[in-house]
Amino acid sequence: MLVFHSPVQAKHHSHQFMRHGRFVPTRDVPARADNILAELTRDGHAIHQARPHGMAPIAAIHTPEFLNFLETAWAEWRRIDGAAEEVMPYVFPVRGMDYGYPTHVIARAGYHAHDLWMPIGEHSHEAALASANLAVEAAARVLEGERAAYALCRPSGHHAFADMAGGNCFLNNAAIAAQHLRQRFGRVALVDIDVHHGNGTQGIFYGREDVLFVSLHRDPIDYHPFFCGYAQERGEGRGLGYNLNLPLPARSGDEAYLAALETACRRIAAYGAEALVVSLGVDGHEDDPTEGLAITHDGFRRIMARLAALNLPSVLVQEGGYNIDTIARCVGSALRGFEGREIAA
Question: Which InterPro entries match (predicted)?
Answer without folding.
Answer: HDACs, His_deacetylse_dom, His_deacetylse_dom_sf, Ureohydrolase_dom_sf
